[in-house]
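Two proteins were folded this term; both appear here.
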Amino acid sequence: MLCTALMAAALLGTVVNSHMILKQPPPYGKDTLDNSPLAADGSNFPCKLRPGAFQAPAGETVARIGESMPLSFIGSATHGGGSCQVSLTSDLQPSKDSKWMVIKSIEGGCPANVAGNLDGGADLEGATVFHYTIPEGIDPGQYTLAWTWFNRIGNREMYMNCAPITVAVGSSERSANPEENVVLKRSASFPPMFIANINGCITKEGIDIRFPDPGDDVEFAGNPANLAPVGSAVCTGVPTFGGDGMAAGTARNAYLEYEEQIPNYE
């Protein structure tokens, strides 16, 4: 019995030490960044607040507007995948009051489309490499990028890593007409980051959540049978903070043109 308990403890330690962290773009505070989820009470939201949380990585990540950028991970405990978002804030040391703009949502299969965990340890780089694009409407300048993840299987958790990026003008020239640029900037609208499992609103285990307001860039990367039914509650409970990201509070299809590909499992 003691032997069994020791084996179980060793296995648990392996899983805990193999949780996912951001590889690309290189995250803030890598020397102090562990691979655990955010605290259940939200005390270290955002960006896993800690001493050295915003220590800059060695190199600069430059993302040009309209160009594809890699989003990759290290680790093996993918917890059956789940749903992720990529968000930006102009705050270089974000706080709970920071305003986040979602630029990409991945519904299902993030960080990998597997039933459980990947085979490997904490240094494994076998998870899916996704890509994001800085959209028009984001001004050139310095930003903090956040990767957030809601795992499908296991404890109800929210993972979050942050990275500094510099947004630069894309290769295609902007309009020479300043009035057109003003219209473009005003028409760009980005939804707030979805927050759950650290604020009293808890997601359901065993499903890939559909974000209430996923934005325009949405990728379906998992098993359609695992997607939350359209119209179902994304989480249950009253959020103590981060309620802006709840939108209507129910899952919905991001794109109508995907309805034939992504069945509505009621």
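Next, the second protein.
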Amino acid sequence: ATEADLDKLAAACDPATFGMNQLDVLDESYRKAGKLDKTDFALNLDIVGNGLLQAVHSALFDWEDNPRGIKAELYKLNVYGPGSFFKAHKDTPRGDDMFGSLVLNFPIKHEGGALVLRHDGREVIHDASAAAYTDPNQVSWVAFYSDVEHEVLPVQSGYRITLTYN
């Protein structure tokens, strides 16, 4: 995508909200990003057929613990442009059977915007911008449980574009 294409995508987005006490809240001092709900864009991506959902299942579970598998429901597309961020938080479950999130990061060059995950005193940093420079044809992904605190560090330049699944 060209920079002009990405600018148009960002302009088409609504301000991103976040869940708090079962409500959707808009507060750009806590989260500044754009979003498109799943009904507002078309996607031709089969995460079951391409093996991604199986890889996520294998990363999160032993087969003995969960032999039935998992499903992922597309939630939204997020666009983090320069100055965008999301302060540390835990996800608000969007359904009774939601146990975590899957985030796909498009391989678009940008600076900043790392996803920091924290749980039980451990911290893991997923830097999709580094992955975009390493292999511009490879979508990176991260999956985590709902009780994992996470934040998106500020984007310095370019766009961090993600698909989020529950």
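The helical segments are 3-12, 52-60, 128-134. The first strand starts at residue 14 and ends at 15. These notes refer to the second protein only.
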